[in-house]
Pilus assembly protein CpaE
Amino acid sequence: MLSTDNALALEAAGLQWHPRPGDRFVVRSVDMGGEVFTISEMVVEAHEYETGTILGFNGTTEWALDSLELADALWLPREDQMRELLGGTFRSLARSTDGRYQVLVELPHGPERVFTAEDAADAYAEALLALVSAATSRTV
């Protein structure tokens, strides 16, 4: 699963979240202890209002949280979501001999690059951050 450090870096790079069923997130609160939630029409549902998106907790009895503003949640994109965002730059995902994951991408106007991490999601995040950086440095 994606580290919160990489999730924060993706958010800072401008990755926007439009909550959908299956999305995972953590609540930006020290009290939550990194508990990971998954959006589902059965438990956590995204409600769209004119004032913004609210994450509604349906039927929760464990604690007294019945809704949460989107800004108070940190999205943890899945591997498939980041692979989709990499689009045509994505070449492959492989495992190295030391067991780490390697994502190979071909960045615009550059050679292929490999991004390596202990978790595949973090390798995807590093590649996506490099893609955003390459795109923004070309447009500035």
Q: What stands out?
A: The mean pLDDT is 89. The longest strand covers residues 44-49. The radius of gyration is 17 Å.
